[in-house]
Write a structure and sequence with these properties.
Blueprint (H helix, E strand, L loop, with lengths): L1 H17 L5 H18 L9 H14 L5 H13 L7 E2 L13 E6 L2 E8 L9 E5 L2 E2 H8 L8 H8 L6 H6 L9 E8 L2 E8 L9 E2 L2 E2 L5 E3 L17 E6 L4 E6 L10 H14 L4 E5 L12 H9 L9 E5 L6 H12 L3 E4 L7 E10 L6 E10 L14 E2 L4 H5 L4 H7 L10 H10 L3 H13 L8 H13 L4 H14 L4 H14 L2 H14 L4 H15 L3
Helix pairs in contact: 2-3, 3-4, 8-9, 9-10, 13-14, 15-16, 15-17, 16-17, 17-18, 17-19, 18-19
Length: 550
């Protein structure tokens, strides 16, 4: 009986903590202040969402606030901020008394699924298990539920920083994953061929798992799933911002840089002076720069890296310099890899970055007047490439992802790919290769080679449809209608199920003056996507053709 009484008091006290400490009017005042501040001082952030969409979301939240608990309002505010989709623009979940609690686990998305990468020793049985469901909700649906809360600049940002929003009990409740706010959550897990459930209890307020570089490293009471007998190079010497080691069998110098801040023991210029001195004085055939963990810093510290590579005739050659990208490559490191892409012969390996090619960063802290919750709003536009080369991320030339088993056993398929690169049989620029085949009249080989590359997982992050479609529009805008029709026709052969491909081909025929063929193709696109954006465009174009406008 005493135990039941204790549990009741514990549950009641937890609910009391979650009850409103501000009136609905005060929360609405905070929301209005945020809305006015954005419109007045940060209207330039309306790039991926519109002012109208933003205001509708604000109005919806304003109306709902009287029926919401504090944590639900905070999550509602986070959803509004997340609409801008810039990773530097977000809201804090750490402001007392509205700070969110944490469950004692860390999730990581591997090639073959979501796994518990690290956890407290009390939950050792769950370590290394694959997550099947959260509170009974399938993991893919749970991720969909939390996605609108995350300021996900792209899918990589969500993988790196967003998936662990599943660690917050407040987020689980506010997004409907759990029916009520609870300090426990049950995960459905798979491990060693068995499916089982495991319950986690939230940590006390202010405490959180010791995550570093998106990973829990084994220390004290905290465990990680990786075999501790060996440490792979990319996780070596994490107490330093950067280090290098020579791989004699491959005659390769490996550099891991996990920050764009100066290390307290050695600044960046001094470190890279040692790097390039080593290259000049030793038998070095390749340089591998690993920035997969690098979340940024001060991009004015990038100069010595970029200029050093440019000056190194020994390294700045095709097939000699490799850069390993990852889902944590962000912020000032995004600037670094873009500069390397612009000015060196770097070959990029791994996963795409978590930052847009051109992006807003360098945020200001705006404090909401009643709750005093800090909101961080970006103000600086960083553009390292022309606008027409903008993209959701910088994609690797060679896509390599890691499975959980490779991680657990300390394999590094990304580094291995760089070390074993075959320059004769890999096309680092598929678009140029396809263009050369097209211009030389090798149409059959063009089709065969394009299909071969599309089927090769190494080209996973090269968007063949988008790149070919963009080329078609460049030609169409030059009024070279015949060539544009040929390119768009080629795209429809590769992607016959794409409504957008048929829509683009229709536009080329329309602009060439062949309205009959354009109508047939627009109708095809409309039938394939009747309720979507492509169908909407096709419907509008058909109306224009009927009206005789162009």
């Amino acid at each position: 009986m005493k135990l039941l009484t204790f549990l009741f008091i514990l549950a009641f006290s937890y609910q009391v903590q979650s009850q409103a400490t501000l009136t609905a009017q005060q929360w609405q005042e905070d929301l209005s202040f945020l809305q006015e501040t954005v419109h007045k001082d940060y209207a330039f952030l309306f790039k991926k969402t519109t002012k109208e969409e933003f205001d509708r979301a604000v109005a919806s939240l304003h109306k709902a606030i009287p029926e919401m608990q504090d944590h639900e309002v905070v999550v509602g505010l986070a959803k509004i901020i997340a609409m801008f989709k810039y990773g530097h623009t977000d809201i804090s979940f750490r402001q007392e008394p509205y700070d969110f609690r944490n469950f004692p686990f860390n999730l990581y998305q591997f090639q073959d699924g979501m796994y518990i990468q690290g956890t407290h020793k009390e939950h050792a049985g769950a370590l290394g298990a694959k997550v099947v469901a959260v509170a009974g909700m399938p993991i893919d649906k749970a991720l969909e539920a939390i996605y609108p809360v995350v300021p996900a600049e792209n899918e990589q940002y969500f993988k790196a920083f967003g998936i662990n929003y599943l660690r917050f009990p407040e987020v689980l409740h506010a997004t409907g994953i759990t029916p009520e706010l609870s300090e426990t959550v049950t995960l459905t897990l798979e491990k060693n061929g068995k499916t089982f459930t495991h319950e986690f209890r939230a940590m006390p307020k202010g405490e959180r798992p010791p995550v570093n570089y998106s990973l829990i490293q084994q220390d004290g009471d905290w465990l990680e799933a990786r075999d501790q007998s060996v440490t792979p190079h990319y996780l070596g010497q994490l107490d330093k911002h950067y280090y290098y080691t020579y791989l004699p069998e491959e005659k390769t110098l490996y550099v891991r840089q996990s920050s764009v801040f100066h290390d307290p023991e050695e600044d960046i210029p001094s470190f890279y002076q040692r790097v390039f001195d080593f290259i000049d004085q030793n038998e070095v055939d390749k340089l591998v720069l690993d920035v997969r963990l690098n979340g940024g810093g001060n991009n004015f510290n990038n100069k010595e890296v970029v200029t050093g590579i440019i000056r190194s005739e020994k390294i700045n050659q095709p097939g000699k310099f490799f850069v390993i990208l990852g889902r944590r490559t962000f912020s000032a490191c995004q600037n670094l890899v873009l500069e390397l892409d612009n000015y060196t012969n770097a070959i990029f390996v791994g996963e795409p970055t978590s930052e847009n090619v051109n992006f807003y960063g360098d945020n200001n802290k705006v404090t909401l007047p009643n709750s005093e919750i800090p909101v961080f709003l970006s103000w600086a536009w960083w553009q390292d490439k022309p606008q027409w080369q903008n993209a959701p991320w910088l994609a690797p030339h060679i896509a390599v992802e890691m499975s959980f088993e490779e991680y657990r056993t300390n394999q590094d398929p990304v580094l291995e790919t760089a070390l074993n690169f075959d320059s004769e049989n890999f096309i680092t620029d598929p678009m140029q290769y396809m263009t050369d085949l097209y211009k030389s009249g090798q149409q059959e080989k063009l089709m065969t080679e394009t299909k071969r590359m599309m089927a090769d997982p190494a080209y996973k992050f090269f968007d063949f449809e988008a790149e070919l479609n963009n080329t078609g529009y460049m030609v169409l805008n030059r009024a070279d209608y015949g060539e544009a029709i040929a390119i768009f026709g080629f795209v429809t052969q590769l992607f016959p199920e794409s409504a957008n491909a048929w829509d683009s081909l229709a536009e080329a025929y329309w602009k060439s003056g062949d309205n009959e063929q354009a109508i047939a193709l627009y109708n095809k696109a409309l039938s394939m996507d009747p309720e979507g954006p492509t169908g909407k465009n096709a419907r509008e174009k058909l109306a224009e053709i009927r009206q005789g406008t162009h």
